[in-house]
């Protein structure tokens, strides 16, 4: 955001205004008699406001906010400033437009409707980023009072309703394709107060007038319809009559605006937009760095198949079931996430798989070969039915996959957070079976403590750190909870010291119920930078992968449009990163959360830091995130967006070719 370009597109009307104090909040007081100074001197009048006759700046506040801001309903207006973005190719960069009514111009109980239209972003060389393809608009919808769900705005009717005394937000995303030429791209967003649909309907023609026009048009159609004419004179007479009817219809007073504009309604709409809209200037610098298609950090996220089956009433293994899973898989790939589907068993045993189809199915190679996939889970079928048929199926699955070039991305996720010696022994037994099929198989195990009933070490943390000695060679990916570390980054070295990289062992991390505030996590209501900082923490601590247990694990429901309820006993938002589209509209497309978008941003930040470190060394990369104030530790990271832009700008400045 560049303050020097403050609101130049809106006629230079930058107003520092205050919102009314709220009873009981920050000292309270009363909002009775509060007057927005921004309305002084306007000619709105005391009657019903026609938004087509008044500049939208007199009707609503408009300002921009970064993607890390949680724009609450009581967010205070700020000056409108030009938005300046920086993005690499194959990157998504987002920001928010905040809207708050100064007055109400609707008669239907809302403050009014607002139309948001964006131009394409164009460079001086003629390249462009097209609205609807590279540029998308989504309404930020509160969940439990917290701005979270990002509901798509119809590009054919880009309008939203805003409420009196409340701030609304629109999430704007720019997706830069891999092949986009570098350069400066510029455009504008027009924010216009418009009549509501109900208000427009009240101004429509009376029913009697509609019926009269209908009859006349119908008679015109009858006159010109195909028929056998008895003579040329009859044909001329009927066409003359039809012409008279059409002229009478066109002279109707309701069509007067069209007469004055020769019927070019779109041109008139454009003129209105130019004259009365608040205009937000937007510029994007695309630089000559392309984010790798395959994420540098494997981030594997669970999708509950049982939640999908219940909510969408799908029978396991049916055509509709495969279609639903395929849709969720492909949708999540855009977030630089490697999804896996999961079904939970007793004692936290888990069936995890990335592809619903067996390895010999054509779809399987399509899934596993997708370059956007950094890692994939292979199903351990005997967890459901320990029969000879299941074991033979597993053996065949491994034999097919281990011959493929993508086998290095494969892993088995067998047990979530084993707690005792018996569960550890079962992991070892399954590992022996799998290693008999493929000696280089990779098994992932999540844990936050050592096995109870063992005497690994005298202290709880030491027992936790010694887990690799128990699970070697039966686990290759040791995935530990960030909750165990707390704010003690120094404990990382104790964990890593027990690993054997020479044997292919890796250290991954995960978050779930913990850690809690102020440490980074994805709970609803946490700060935006706190969400994004999860990936900053991973990068600084040196983990080589990340796992998240569930992204759609809300309470059970039996219809797609049922209200979303978070699971009891879990922090709000834990295990839920997107919502069914049917909850908000007739769309079947999943609805992302702001938290999911911030995960993507964090994944993209890792690519920036990796590029910088490849040029100047890891120590310099660590110094960069500290000297910019972006991230110093799990409880010491920026609360504001500014340092994020400073870090990204420094990478751009020092690494562009």
UniProtKB/TrEMBL annotation:
<dbReference type="InterPro" id="IPR025150">
    <property type="entry name" value="GH123_cat"/>
</dbReference>
<feature type="domain" description="Glycoside hydrolase 123 catalytic">
    <location>
        <begin position="390"/>
        <end position="611"/>
    </location>
</feature>
<protein>
    <recommendedName>
        <fullName>Glycoside hydrolase 123 catalytic domain-containing protein</fullName>
    </recommendedName>
</protein>
<dbReference type="Pfam" id="PF13320">
    <property type="entry name" value="GH123_cat"/>
</dbReference>
<feature type="region of interest" description="Disordered">
    <location>
        <begin position="1"/>
        <end position="23"/>
    </location>
</feature>
<feature type="compositionally biased region" description="Polar residues">
    <location>
        <begin position="1"/>
        <end position="18"/>
    </location>
</feature>
